[in-house]
Amino acid sequence: MRTLSRKVNLGVLLLIGLVLVSAVWGTQVTTAQTSGGEACAQLLPNIEKHVTGCQGLAPDQVCYGNKIIAVEYTEEAGGQKTLAKEGDIAPLNTVKSLTAGPLNPERDEWGVAVLKTQPGNLEGTTAGQVVTFIVYGDTTVTGKTVPVGKTADQQAEPPPSCDATTTRSTYLRASPGPNEQQVELLPANTSVKITGRRADGRWVQAEGNGKTGWLFMDNLKTQCDLGSLPLTDPVIKPLPNVNAFFFSTGVGAQSTCKDIPPAGMFVQSPKGIKVTFRLNGADIVMGSTADFSVDPGPPPRIKVKVIEGEVQVIVGGRPYTIRGGTEASFPLGGPDGLQFIGPPGNLLPLGSDPTAPGYVRTLCDVAEAAGLTVTGCNVQPPPLPPPQFTSTPTEEITSCSERTFLSNGKVCIPNIGIVACDRNGKCDDPKNGENSYTCPEDCGAPPPKDGWGGPPKPPTPTPIECPYGSCGPFS
After folding, report:
1. CATH fit for domain 160-228, picks 2.30.30.40, 3.40.50.1400, 2.40.128.50, 3.90.1570.10
2. Where are the domains of the chain?
3. Tens of pLDDT along 61-96?
4. For site-directed labelling of 44, which of 220, 271, 336, 465 has its Cα 20 to 30 A away?
């Protein structure tokens, strides 16, 4: 695929929330399993062909990638329905909500929309410094009461802040850290205004005694929820031109094609740059490529698959780090049932999900069609353990309760008896019963599903040690 080489301008703060909603499409999605059918085989090439029309997408724009998508427009659109067909492009601030249609291979449908925006506070306009969101399948993004992209009036609004008081004499510092340059010594009981925070929540950006700098949180008494403030970490870039918007998938969305995921949102940040957005009450910090989807449960959970790089999900002030090649799922709850409410389950390799190899490969193909470069796309399933058989040197047995190798090149099989299987790598004794059923070691077939317990099963995924970067201090 061609890579995006267009120079782009900066700017975009994205706050994302994840919502479970019913699909808005009236068309009945095919429910028959068509994983091997011609419709599924032809669908992906058609999608890639259509999505190439989004390669010229500029920052703060939306592209209609593949049918079908439905759009609710803002007043900024002036009554014009600018996203009517594949290849159409519109400004992000004209979109109040956007819904990609569900998978329907018989009608050549799998809704895809591509959104691009740039991180703030970057010097220059280097090609590739753009955050890309690919919304696919039975998925909706909406700003609810506001458009997805900020209007000029919204951009002029003052940023949120929080009042606080120092609990002891403490230094306002030029950067977050106990050894950074001292800007101003603030006595105890000094009033300060907090305007931002680091991802780990231990340091906040504040104004005090007419100076601006960073304060250690343990030395402050706050009067608000710091989670409402933006992340202003010096090494993390916000997306300043986008409102809070919510990511949602249809309840019970499922795929009828083996390698095409039913619904979700694929996200890639610029190489070497960390960006931040908000997803259902949690801060997301990523310098990577990842996929977000919903497992409706019960209980419902948000799945985060990290294809390359690293994603940090901050829930209740605690960061959980998910590295490339792994996945984690977080529980949803709260008053509306849609908020991150706690830590994730076990951190697992991507390959522990049997659908991951095909799904990730498909998402990478679509991303490359849109002009992105993605690595880490070849997800490998965990290897099967070798069959566990019992071997005995004696030839005197005539029956057995489990498959048992004998020393004379034969094998005892439950309910069958003694048959040939010399395990020499050749299926060379058919007259005495060496065949693919009784001797798969030589004759090339997997162990039968019955007779001695069936084929070996994949091992239970082993949780990754030291998950989410929580084993060391200040994790």
Report:
1. 2.30.30.40
2. 14-150+236-369, 160-228, 390-443
3. 999 999 999 998 888 777 888 899 999 999 988 888
4. 271
